[in-house]
């Protein structure tokens, strides 16, 4: 449901006990350890609730990874506990599973059609620790080879040259903090460090002849720096950034190997730009063209066909993705067939350039892969994922609403967009209880994508869900993105207060029964909302959330620390540290007077589990019910189906008791 970033280390029972603080041993805490799951004060989950939830939890989706050279599609889908790589060779054909791991597989990168060998690169971590290693799956032998150091390094962002002879990727192997660009000769296995300029670097695209590599340094959602590396010498040349600082998206060579296509919000003719546009630049001729100047929304991404005849790109228009197709080199728009309305995932042209595959997701349908025949302007569905035996016609599509908040823009009240899932059955009490679901990031964006949680709440429990994109969300322009930075952090919390005001004015919604939930930064938002609005919120669910910005920045993995400082502020600055001390939920925990459910992965490298344990201890001191769930084999979210299912059932039980029940 959110565009933001979120995967098994088995911990011995004794070690897990030792890791838990003294408060967990308190006689008032009812603790249960089952395998990798430790739960505190969570009652037994009724069998009928598990049975009712089962169909919703058995929905699955399929995401596109790319084409194989023989015209099949590589996809990611889950048949057992975790998402694995599969191959599909015809529309609605059999999904042949290729990888079989207890941990989810991601970052699947197929070898180019003209590569010297056939297969794909993929990434896999252990227990959600995000120290992903890269592996090669060889299609001829079905063998799998480890490509990276296998240690405590993070590796990803795989980019392959046209002939498959070179593989560029990002890695923290050098010092554990900086994300450098490394180069591997796939024929000899020789690996060398290519870019070690400090910071967070990623490879973007090899030139057609493999001699140059486009790279990008990411600082924050509003700041990136593009450049080019000579593959032979390692010489890095940074490109000038108009305006000095800008956000960039995709970056790729045009078929001529000299011109480039890229996404940027750099100023145009000295005029600041709110949105990221698709641009073309030929450095030799000086020709520059803005290809999406007439679209007042962000371009999300693009891809080029191997034959150099087409470019496809997507725009994010108020949370809905739109697909566009251009002919090359004249950049003329090509008509496309009608597609389902929703959110688009990966895109890839077939090896011959005649077809375009993409994954589609909507509020009423999980992700599936579609293929467009460009010449015939026809679309064919290639996968049809299961929805647990449910009647998909009864799924609820949200409406987009905008509610007024506390400040003004050009003399008018600022409005905040939110997706509203409204139950179709009449409420037994005349008004629907509400769950506010807040995205993470904080630079994420809630989208009208499929959510089994939203469907279950609406159809089975009669609960409405509101999914706001508070200030700081991407997708609404550069200004909106910056409205919650640093000392303005709590302005986004005020947007939740404004949503509570809006709920109170809706005749069909019950303002006396409102819950809040969110993950990661959304977890912080839950805790912050509870410190400000406990008198207006019944209960909250915090998943892998930040409880104190100072301890979070101190304990998050070192490769993430500067990235987060760019967004939240630098705790080493006394003035900023004072803000953190004032606004952090841990320091205001005495104000949380309602039931709280905290869920966490023990291996989380982003928001360490200590963030969860300290807020659990503090809120328990208020004498309110606090449920706590810790998985020893998970990280920043729950990637294993059994774990996620149990958490989902516990969450619904929590809402039944504290949102729908009489308890407050």
Automatic annotation (TrEMBL):
Pfam families from the entry? Answer: PD40, Peptidase_S9
Task: Identify the stretch annotated as signal peptide in this record.
Answer: 1-24
Query: What superkingdom heads the lineage?
Result: Bacteria
- An example Gene Ontology molecular-function term: serine-type endopeptidase activity
Q: SUPFAM superfamilies from the entry? A: alpha/beta-Hydrolases (SSF53474), DPP6 N-terminal domain-like (SSF82171)
Ranges of residues in domain Peptidase S9 prolyl oligopeptidase catalytic = 448-659
* GO biological process: one example: proteolysis
Keywords annotated in UniProt: Hydrolase, Protease, Serine protease, Signal
Classification via PANTHER family: DIPEPTIDYL PEPTIDASE FAMILY MEMBER 6 (PTHR42776:SF27), SERINE PEPTIDASE S9 FAMILY MEMBER (PTHR42776)
In its UniProt entry, what is this protein called?
S9 family peptidase
């Amino acid at each position: 449901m959110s565009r933001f970033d979120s995967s098994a280390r088995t911990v011995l029972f004794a070690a897990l006990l030792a890791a838990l603080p003294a408060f967990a041993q308190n006689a008032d805490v009812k603790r249960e350890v089952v395998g990798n799951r430790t739960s505190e004060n969570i009652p037994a989950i009724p069998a009928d609730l598990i049975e009712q939830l089962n169909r919703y939890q058995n929905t699955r989706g399929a995401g596109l990874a790319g084409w194989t050279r023989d015209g099949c599609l590589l996809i990611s889908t889950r048949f057992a506990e975790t998402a694995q790589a599969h191959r599909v060779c015809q529309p609605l054909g059999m999904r042949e599973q290729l990888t079989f791991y207890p941990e989810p597989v991601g970052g699947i990168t197929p070898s180019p059609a003209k590569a010297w060998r056939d297969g794909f690169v993929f990434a896999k971590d252990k227990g959600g620790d995000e120290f992903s290693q890269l592996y090669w799956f060889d299609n001829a032998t079905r063998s799998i080879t480890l490509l990276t150091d296998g240690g405590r390094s993070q590796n990803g962002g795989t980019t392959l040259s046209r002939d498959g002879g070179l593989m560029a990727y990002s890695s923290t192997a050098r010092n554990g903090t900086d994300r450098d660009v490394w180069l591997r000769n796939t024929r000899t296995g020789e690996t060398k460090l290519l870019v070690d300029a400090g910071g967070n670097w990623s490879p973007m695209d090899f030139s057609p002849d493999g001699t140059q590599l486009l790279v990008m340094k990411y600082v924050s959602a509003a700041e990136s720096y593009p450049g080019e590396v000579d593959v032979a010498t390692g010489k890095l040349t940074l490109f000038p950034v108009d305006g000095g600082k800008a956000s960039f998206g995709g970056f790729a060579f045009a078929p001529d190997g000299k011109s480039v296509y890229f996404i940027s919000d750099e100023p145009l003719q000295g005029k600041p730009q709110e949105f990221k546009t698709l641009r073309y630049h030929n450095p030799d001729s000086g020709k520059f063209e803005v290809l999406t100047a007439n679209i007042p929304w962000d371009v999300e991404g693009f891809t080029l066909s191997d034959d150099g005849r087409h470019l496809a790109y997507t725009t994010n228009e108020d949370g809905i993705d739109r697909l566009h197709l251009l002919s090359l080199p004249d950049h003329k728009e090509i008509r496309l067939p009608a597609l389902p309305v929703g959110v688009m995932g990966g895109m890839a042209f077939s090896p011959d350039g005649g077809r375009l595959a993409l994954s589609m997701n909507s509020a009423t349908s999980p992700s599936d892969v579609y293929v467009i025949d460009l010449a015939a302007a026809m679309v064919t569905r290639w996968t049809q994922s299961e929805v647990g035996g449910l009647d998909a016609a009864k799924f609820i599509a949200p409406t987009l609403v905008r509610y007024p908040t506390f400040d003004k823009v050009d003399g008018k009240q600022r409005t905040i967009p939110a997706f509203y899932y409204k139950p179709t059955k009449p409420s037994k009490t005349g008004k629907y209880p509400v769950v506010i679901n807040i995205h993470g990031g904080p630079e994420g964006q809630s989208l009208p994508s499929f959510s089994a949680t939203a469907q279950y709440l609406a159809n089975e429990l009669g609960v409405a869900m509101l999914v706001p994109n508070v200030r700081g969300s991407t997708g609404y322009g550069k200004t909106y993105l910056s409205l919650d930075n640093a000392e303005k952090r709590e302005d986004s919390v005020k947007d939740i207060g404004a949503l509570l005001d809006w709920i109170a004015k809706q005749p069909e919604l019950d303002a006396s029964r409102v819950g809040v939930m969110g993950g990661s930064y959304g977890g912080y938002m839950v805790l912050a909302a509870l410190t400000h609005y406990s008198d207006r919120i019944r209960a909250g669910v915090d998943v892998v959330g930040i409880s104190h910005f100072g301890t979070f920045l101190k304990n998050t993995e070192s490769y993430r620390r500067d990235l987060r400082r760019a967004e939240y502020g630098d705790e080493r600055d006394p003035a900023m540290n004072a803000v953190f001390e004032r606004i952090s939920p841990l320091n205001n925990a005495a104000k949380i007077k309602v039931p709280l459910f905290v869920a966490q992965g023990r291996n989380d490298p982003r928001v360490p589990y200590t963030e969860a344990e300290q807020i659990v201890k503090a809120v328990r001191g208020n004498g309110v019910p606090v449920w706590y769930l810790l998985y020893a084999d998970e990280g920043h979210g729950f990637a294993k189906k059994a774990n996620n299912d149990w958490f989902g059932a516990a969450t619904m039980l929590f809402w039944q008791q504290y949102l729908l029940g009489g308890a407050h």
